[in-house]
Amino acid sequence: MTLKETVGQVLTTEDAVNKALETYDSEGYITVTDKEAQEQILAKLEDNGFYVYDEQFIDGVYRIYIEQ
Q1: List of residues 6+ apart from 50 with CB closer than 8 A
Q2: Cβ atoms of 54 and 48 closer than 8 Å
Q3: How far is CA 47 from the centre of its chain?
Q4: Which residues, including other chains, have CB under 8 Å from residue 62's CB and lie 6 or more apart?
Q5: Mean pLDDT over residues 35-58, rounded?
Q6: pLDDT tops 80 at residue 68
Q7: Which residues of 15-25 are buried (b: 16+ CB within 10 A; e: fewer)?
Q8: What's the pTM value of the predicted model, to 2 decimals?
């Protein structure tokens, strides 16, 4: 399962998925603003074999750093 598909299991709109993934290629992390969504995405990432090496909450945004 791709990263986009995995995030799409939690974030239901294409716009929300694209917004979450827009920093991944350049910065190595995805972003979400909702704590519940962040927790669900972390669980889905783990279930699908993605390695999350850091999480941060900065300026009201949750950053999930994923090994590329």
Answers
A1: 3, 6, 66, 67
A2: no
A3: 13
A4: 31, 32, 33, 34, 35, 38, 55, 56
A5: 96
A6: no
A7: ebbeebbeebe
A8: 0.92
- Give pLDDT tens digits for 9-18: 999 899 999 9
Sequential DSSP letters for 1-68:
--HHHHHHTTS-SHHHHHHHHTTHHHHSEEEES-HHHHHHHHHHHHHTT--EEEEEEETTEEEEEE--
Q: How far is CA 17 from CA 5, 30, 48, 67, in A?
A: 9, 9, 17, 18
In 3D space, the residue among 6, 56, 2 whose CA is nearest the CA of residue 31 turns out to be 56
Cα 32 vs. chain centroid, distance in angstroms? 7
At 36, list the tokens: 């519940």
Contacts of 51 (CB under 8 A, 6+ apart): 66, 67
